[in-house]
Specification:
The chain has one domain (about 50-185): Toll/interleukin-1 receptor homology (TIR) domain (Rossmann fold, 3-Layer(aba) Sandwich), CATH 3.40.50.10140. About 30% of the residues are buried. It has 8 helices and 5 strands. The longest helix is centred in the C-terminal third of the chain and has 21 residues, at about 165-185. Helix 3 (about 60-75) links the parallel strand 1 and strand 2 (about 80). The chain has helices at about 20-25, 35-40, 60-75, 85, 95-105, 115-120, 120-130, 165-185; strands at about 50-55, 80, 105-110, 140-145, 160-165. A 5-stranded parallel sheet has the order 2-1-3-4-5, with helices on both faces. The protein is of the alpha/beta class and about 190 residues long.
């Protein structure tokens, strides 16, 4: 299904085991899990950027995005979120603030709704995030809500997305995807 977050590929870790591909995945050696305390450690690569996640959304969807930000910031990892209305410096140019937030964030969550698709500013935000790290696996997290798959932006079709049906489940998927990226970041 294209409606879930991509999972990391583990088939390369069992190349020469002599077993069939189906069983080699089960026998793959997974690296030790990285705990929230490791990600939160002061020497962690997480702290190389100001934000863990930048949220791109339509103004119409602000209430839902504020709920998501509250959820993410309330997690044990205390994700650092950039929410333009709250975090942009008064008096700064809107485009400058957005570009800075995109460059200084590890991940970008795009809440793609009918309002997002109609808003030229949202399209600009999407293009800025994609230009920052083209084809960055796991960094751009599209979240579809009330949008048909055929209306999914062509620019994002190479990325898996999260379809928001149940808010709590979708919020957890977003959190898990951000966490997975931060874990990979700490391993490298």
């Amino acid at each position: 299904s294209a409606s879930s977050s991509p999972s990391s590929s583990s088939s390369s870790s069992a190349k020469s085991s002599g077993s069939s591909p189906g069983t080699s995945l089960a026998r793959s050696v997974c690296p030790a899990p990285i705990l929230a305390s490791d990600i939160n450690a002061s020497g962690s690569a997480r702290w190389a950027k100001s934000y863990d996640v930048c949220l791109c959304h339509s103004d119409v969807d602000l209430e839902l995005v504020e709920e998501l930000v509250s959820y993410l910031e309330g997690q044990p990892e205390s994700f650092r979120c950039f929410l333009q209305l709250r975090d942009a410096a008064p008096g700064s140019a809107v485009v400058t603030e957005l570009c800075d937030a995109v460059q200084n964030s590890h991940c970008w969550v795009m809440l793609i709704t009918p309002s997002f698709l109609r808003d030229p500013w949202c399209k600009y935000q999407m293009h800025q995030a994609l230009a920052e790290a083209p084809m960055a696996n796991g960094r751009t997290i599209p979240v579809l809500k009330d949008v048909d798959r055929r209306d999914y932006p062509k620019e994002l079709r190479n990325l898996y997305y999260i379809y928001m049906a149940l808010k709590e489940k979708s919020f957890r998927q977003i959190r898990d995807t951000i966490m997975r990226y931060l874990q990979e970041l700490c391993r490298s």
